[in-house]
Amino acid sequence: MGKEFVKSITGMDEDFAQWYTDVVTKAELIDYSSVRGSMIIRPYGYALWENIKDELDNRIKETGHENVYMPLFIPESLLQREKDHIEGFAPEVAWVTHGGDEELQERLCVRPTSEVLFGEHYKNIIHSYRDLPKLYNQWANVVRWEKTTRPFLRTLEFLWQEGHTCHETDEEAHEETVKMLDVYAELCENILAIPVIKGQKTEKEKFAGAKYTYTIESLMHDGKALQSGTSHHLGDGFAKAFGIQFSDREGNLQYVQQTSWGFTTRIIGAMIMVHGDDRGLVIPPKAAPTQLMIVPIAQHKEGVLDFAYGLKDRLAGSFRVGIDASDKKPGWKFNEYEMKGIPLRLEAGPRDIEQNQVIIARRDTGEKVTVSLDELESKIAKLLDEVQNNLFYKALKHREEKTSVALNFEEFSEKLNTNKGFIKAMWCGDQTCEDKIKEETGATSRCIPFEEEKVAAECVCCGKEAEQLIYWARAY
Amino acid sequence: MGKEFVKSITGMDEDFAQWYTDVVTKAELIDYSSVRGSMIIRPYGYALWENIKDELDNRIKETGHENVYMPLFIPESLLQREKDHIEGFAPEVAWVTHGGDEELQERLCVRPTSEVLFGEHYKNIIHSYRDLPKLYNQWANVVRWEKTTRPFLRTLEFLWQEGHTCHETDEEAHEETVKMLDVYAELCENILAIPVIKGQKTEKEKFAGAKYTYTIESLMHDGKALQSGTSHHLGDGFAKAFGIQFSDREGNLQYVQQTSWGFTTRIIGAMIMVHGDDRGLVIPPKAAPTQLMIVPIAQHKEGVLDFAYGLKDRLAGSFRVGIDASDKKPGWKFNEYEMKGIPLRLEAGPRDIEQNQVIIARRDTGEKVTVSLDELESKIAKLLDEVQNNLFYKALKHREEKTSVALNFEEFSEKLNTNKGFIKAMWCGDQTCEDKIKEETGATSRCIPFEEEKVAAECVCCGKEAEQLIYWARAY
């Protein structure tokens, strides 16, 4: 194997950040450009995003939502309408000040999120309870002026969907907030094989302008947490700022109750850091652009390529199948598709033709099995299921091993430094304690889990009475 | 029928511009916002775009292209690398000068198109003829700082796909340019029922930085032309500006040959202006978000709603079907779905139940037919085909009636003012004549058609010898 074909990557446990950078570039998910903090999403990365997007878009439509498209730019005065919102976002927006040679009278910000645009539109189109609920979603790019960036995890620009809905009652908005968090959680667990903790953000960590924020939190290989999707009950704050009123069933004028919820290309970063290993990416079969890659062995021998292409045609209706019949050596191809995290590799050579079989290798365990052609489809389907499940349970086991309980501040710091991962600990509800923990340990409150639990009676920080358990972690 | 339900629109022949505005707003395709020159694409408009996008995306993938995503921002220095390109685009770009509170050291333009970003990336990833061709596409929003704007036709921001490819030879790039123009033409004619003229742009009208530009041109109801898709052979201009070189099959270093091609939300404006009428939108069945709308008649009577929903369930697997069982009057519903251009309306009432039939009304001709339930699917399929074909041939007939030949300047002006539409006339090839025609008549050269024709031996403007026939028109 020629040296030019070897793509070596840094070991995960040696330097996790470098490992991540190696994987995203060498698996050809992204490339850098001269645009600071932005990334080029390459064909393989974008195909992955398209799969995730299609899965989510189907779920968004099945739950009754409609897609729309809002403008990219927001006039400064519009962004300022909701006070908490502008305070939260102003420090991180990009400002357009000139169009062509002309200086603009009012600056335009490049949308960091679109609550205010939806607010203005909803005021125009909602008049009566008959107009409700309004269940809108948009797929878009957004920009946040981040200082330190990393492909997928934190970039100046990212791709996402943002749902924005209006309801008659607080209760209905609450149900929507829960429903969409459940959609995100189901997608993460069933398609991306990423186990998540569902819960509520603290006041400090909630979305700027929301009544409350629900979140799903996942845990990466290195023990850091990653916020994987959020769903906000906005109450009537934006409705009041934008005057979105309707006559209710009794003929009284009311403000609508709103929600918003978002899911981003960030999840690709989570998928990499949850499942990847020292040989590169590992992609769960349900999300994989290619589920099975056929590599002909001794392809110069008579009949091998015909056999391999025959298999591809046979399988293409049932699975996402690729074939590499290039003149590169099989060993190079094995490395390449392992780096790219393709769930199954199918090897087919002269001996296999003779014996009416193929060899299938699993990316997740490295296991190789011989499969008779008579049961090829059923065996591949079974293997793909097994890979999908194995990835999920492996990640769940890892999260459980990396979740500790802390009863006091010393224990908190010690477990955070040794075991890393999530720390479950009680909290009095006072932001001073939350701030102190962040400042002294680097851990932030990830969420108050929906599955209530009580591991002690006192706050892990101040020792005062505490009712709430929090998942804490250092986070991306 | 209550007055509040009536959505009246301006007559097409009374004030075509106002008719257009009425249609896009009252059919709920778009809404305005406080963002100058931008539009909100509402659910019905976006569903239409999603259908067009899916059709085109399938064709782009079937022809071997891969989707990628490039950054939204372009540093000023990068945009300036290709001289003709920056000259063409600089007057119409939006500039970001601040990120948060900080003034940027280098301004960033919001992409008006992405040739330079692809150029930089291609330099990184192309080294050998083995890396070619590279066939990339992206779906994105772009911004052009237009002074006068109109929904879909000319907006500050629009949605599009932009293909960017690299090839070994000039000939291959030429084939790609032709192939993608053909894809656009086929989509316009077969899905959107818009007949197009294929041809080449003059030097004056070609894309900034291209070797040559191919275009498809269509004709609107009011006799103005609309450029409906363009495909550019870029030659090696960008390759030289960005240093995109490869070692060829003989081991020599060569510059790649490139193409780019784009298709935008503008086509929705074309669809409206080609097929619409005084009752509103008319959408070709293959592009329609809803192909058939069921309107129950006397729905308070026993069995009617069950019957109507039964039909919906029966048809939903074969067609895109809607049902309106709201308490609005049938007359209101008829108007509403005519305004929205839904190809077929199915009326189902007590008499129909008795007689095992339904009434189907065509949006394009107003014709009503009684259809037995025994042949419902086949009859609907046939009607949808007929509507699709009728729209295409009606548009083709209109274009033919609005296409004149002019042999001299007086005839040119006269026919342009009376018959409007396309003028076919000879041109000497001199830009002075092209400029003069534009200045004195408002018509621009739309294209030199691929189907060559010679209607005279002299230039329509200067009377000198002329070889090329041009389609001229006033245009959107």
UniProtKB/TrEMBL annotation, chains A, B:
SMART domains: ProRS-C_1. Keywords: Aminoacyl-tRNA synthetase, ATP-binding, Cytoplasm, Ligase, Nucleotide-binding, Protein biosynthesis. NCBIfam families: proS_fam_I. Homodimer. Catalyzes the attachment of proline to tRNA(Pro) in a two-step reaction: proline is first activated by ATP to form Pro-AMP and then transferred to the acceptor end of tRNA(Pro). Consists of three domains: the N-terminal catalytic domain, the anticodon-binding domain and the C-terminal extension. This is Proline--tRNA ligase. It comes from Bacillus salacetis.
